[in-house]
């Protein structure tokens, strides 16, 4: 009987700790971009099957396509946390360089071959810095990109509202940088889509785990709830570790039945990790 050969391993990531100069490798199965895409396609089969069922149940919503809204900070930072969990790393570990999320594959996962009526993403950058490469990558994929500068606040700035403490970007001692109006801007895009297509309700695909109110709005959860009341279907796409309990509330989800569903990204994590060249 022929033994099944073990997969070839390759270094896919490296990490270290801030107090040490040592950089350690992480190994996993070697793959090509084509192999990663085949894996993604295979893993999407159950979701595409569910899409066919929902097309029969909600033909009007399916006809009017999907409107995608991507909370980049939430998805990207939660991606790094999910990778640490997958490879058993401590929270204090720091990837070097940072792992890259395959935005083309992520978009394919969000859209899944359905008619796309709009791709929107909210991002933030440090003041005075050039836009990171992924911003242009998102534009090339067809996203409307809203980029906002992070706001500098002093460490003792008690008057600063922090809806997402994990998204605070700190300098060494004096000040830190927090996201400013990123969530609110993306929520405005959701409201615009709902109003502009109020007679053509489709499906909102929202990629975030966040449900808390923002500084100047009542949060993604309330925007989704309003859209559902107006006849939209909603898909919430998130990493398990950042998925707010509000999205899993049994009584609330039962209210909407199959018109609301949650898709967790964790089973796609290796598919979505960009293959190093």
TrEMBL record:
Xref: Gene3D superfamilies: 5'-nuclease
Highest taxon, organism lineage: Eukaryota
Name of the protein this chain belongs to: NYN domain-containing protein
């Amino acid at each position: 009987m022929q033994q099944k050969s073990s997969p070839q391993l390759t270094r896919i990531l490296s990490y270290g700790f801030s107090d040490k100069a040592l950089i350690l490798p992480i190994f996993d199965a070697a793959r090509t971009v084509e192999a990663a895409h085949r894996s993604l396609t295979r893993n999407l089969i159950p979701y595409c099957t569910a899409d066919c069922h929902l097309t029969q149940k909600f033909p009007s919503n399916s006809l009017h396509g999907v409107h995608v809204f991507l909370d980049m900070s939430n998805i990207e930072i939660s991606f790094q946390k999910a990778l640490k969990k997958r490879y058993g790393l401590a929270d204090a570990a720091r990837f070097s360089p940072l792992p890259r999320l395959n935005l083309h594959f992520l978009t394919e996962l969000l859209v899944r071959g359905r008619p796309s009526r709009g791709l929107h993403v909210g991002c933030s950058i440090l003041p005075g810095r050039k836009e990171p490469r992924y911003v242009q990558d998102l534009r090339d994929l067809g996203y409307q990109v809203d980029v906002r500068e992070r706001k500098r606040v002093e460490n003792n700035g008690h008057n600063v509202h922090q809806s997402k403490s994990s998204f605070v970007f700190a300098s060494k001692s004096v000040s830190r940088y927090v996201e400013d109006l990123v969530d609110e801007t993306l929520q405005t895009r959701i409201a615009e889509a709902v109003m502009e297509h109020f007679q053509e309700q489709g499906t909102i695909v929202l990629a975030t785990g966040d449900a808390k109110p923002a500084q100047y709005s009542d949060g993604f959860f309330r925007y989704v709830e309003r859209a559902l009341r107006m006849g939209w279907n909603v898909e919430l796409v998130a990493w398990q570790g950042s998925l707010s309990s509000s999205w899993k509330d049994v009584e609330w989800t039962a209210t909407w039945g199959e018109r609301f569903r949650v898709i967790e990204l964790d089973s796609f994590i290796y598919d979505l990790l960009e293959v190093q060249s």
